[in-house]
Amino acid sequence: MYNFRYPMIPSRAVPWVLPIVFWAAGLLMGHGSMLVSGLSRVQGDQIDSGLLQYVLEHEVRWATGDPAHARLWDPPTFYPAPNVAAYSESLLGVAPLYGFWRLLGVPWDAAYGLWLMTITTLNFVAVYLLLFRTLRFGAAASSFGAFLFAFASSRFAHIGQSQLLAGFYLAPALHALVRIFSAEGRHTPGVLLFFAACVAQIYACFYIGWFLGLALAVALFAALLRPDLRTPLISTLRRNAVGIGVGVAGSVLLLLPFLMHSLRAAADLGPRPFDEVEMFLPRPAAWIYMGAGSWIYGWQQGCWPFDRLPAGPTELAIGIGVVAPVIALLGLFDRRTTPLGKLLLVLCIALPALTTILPGGFGLWGAAYLTVPGASAIRAVGRVSFVLLLPMAVGAAAFLDARCRRRPLLLALAALALLEQGRRSADYDRREARERRIAIARRVRPESAAFFYSARESDAGGDFAASLSWRHHVDAMLASLECGIPTLNGYSGGVPAGWPFLYDAVLQGPAHEERVRQGLKAWCARHAIDEARVQWIRGR
Fold first, then answer.
1. Are 291 and 187 within one domain?
2. Distances from the Cα of 332 to the Cαs of 96, 366, 400, in angstroms?
3. Which of 106, 142, 443, 463 is deepest in the core (most CB within 10 A)?
4. pTM of the complete model beyond 0.90
5. Which domain holds residue 163?
C-alpha cells in the first residue's frame, strides 16, 4: 500500500510518531476542559455521571474488602433493597482501569476524570493497532481511522453516559475474526480471543455488547445469503468447532452471574414499554445530527428537521458529521470486493435500516422488540451508532489509504472530517460538587443505620439542575461514600419495588414533607428497619 513520505521523521518512527500526534490532538479536542483545568473540572453532568462514579467506586471498594461494600450486587443505596446494581450498567469490564488510579492514591472524583481519558486512549490505541497491524493500512490512514473511532462527536455528546465510551473491546473481537477466517487451519487462540472480547464488552457496556451481538447476527445472516461467503464461513466454523464449543461454554460461565442478576432485575422492573422505546428510535435526521455543542454543526439545534427529534437534546445526537461518514462509506465501497469490506458495508446499511423510524411511524424495530432476545430491555436504540463507529473507522482508513496520492484535496477532506468531531461537552466544577456532598456527609450521625437526604425547594436558588430530585439522590449516594453509612436515596435505570422517593429528594412544602415522612415509615416497615435509626436530613 502506498504511504505518505515524512522527510522530517525517520521511517521507523512514523508508525509511532503519527498516532501520538493524532492521539494528543484528539485528547485535547475531546477532553480539553479537564486538561486545561487540571481536573478541577470534570466532563459529564452531576446525575448520570455521578451514578457512574458511584458504581465504579463501589466496585473498587468491594474488590478491596470494604465492609460497607461487601456485596457486589447489593451496594448500600436504595438501602436495604437487594440486587440494585443490576438496574444499571455494571462497568465491571472497565472498573479495573478506574481502580488503577485509585490505587495510586488519586481521589475518587478526580480518578473518574482520569478514567475517562484512559478509556478514550485505549479506544484509540486498540483501533490503531487493528488498522495498522491487522488490516495493514498505513500509519496515517490508521491514525485517521482510530481518531474517528475514539474522538467521534457522538461519544462526547453522550459524555454524561460515559459507559458508552468503552468500545475498545470491539477491536480485538474484529482482529480475532480476521485471523480466524484468514487461517487455513484451526485458529483456537483467535476463537478464544473473540469470545473473551465479547464477554468483556458486555461487562464494560451492556448496550454496546448487545448491539455487537446484533451486528454479528446480521453479518452471519448476510454471509449465509451469499454463496461466495457461505462456503468459506461454513468451512471455517467446522474447522474451529471445538474451539467454538469451548468459547461458548466459557462465555456462558463467565456471564452467568451477570445474566442471573440481570434476569432477576428484569423480573422486578418488567420490560420497557414500546411507547417509551419508540421515542428513542433514531429518525433519519438523527444520523447527521450533532447536537448543540458541535463546533461546526451547532446551528442544527432548533432548526428543521432536527427540532423534531424527541428524547432530549443529546440522546439522538448520534451523527459524526457529513464528510466523515461519506469518506467512510466510500472507503468501504472501495473494499467491497473483500469479505470484510462486504460485511462491514452491509452493517452500515442494515443496522440503520433496522433501527430507524420513518415519518408516519414506519419502522422495523417493533418486530425486533417482540422477537429478538434482550431487545425489550433496550431503550436508547440509537446507541447502535457506537458499534457502527468501528466499520466507519475501517472505511475511513481504507479511503485515506487508497487515495493518498491526491494529497491536497484529500488532506482538506480529512482535516474537515476530523474537525467535524469537535464539540463543547458538558462539565462541572469537581471541587464545588465534592464540597456539597461532604456537607451532607458531615451531617450524618455515625450511629445511624442509614440516612435519607431531601433538599428544600428554596435551596435550588434558580439553578435548574439543583431543582431536580435525581441530582440530590445522586448527591446523597456520593455522600454515602464519604461517610460510610448506607442511604435510602438512589438513582439508576429503575427503582426497587415499593421505593416511594423518586421525586422526594426536593421538599416542596409541609404537605410534601408529610408524604415523605409516611413514605419513610412504609419503607422501613417493608424492610424491617428500625425507623428510629434512619436519619432524615432536610435542607442544607
1. yes
2. 35, 29, 11
3. 142
4. yes
5. 11-38+89-419
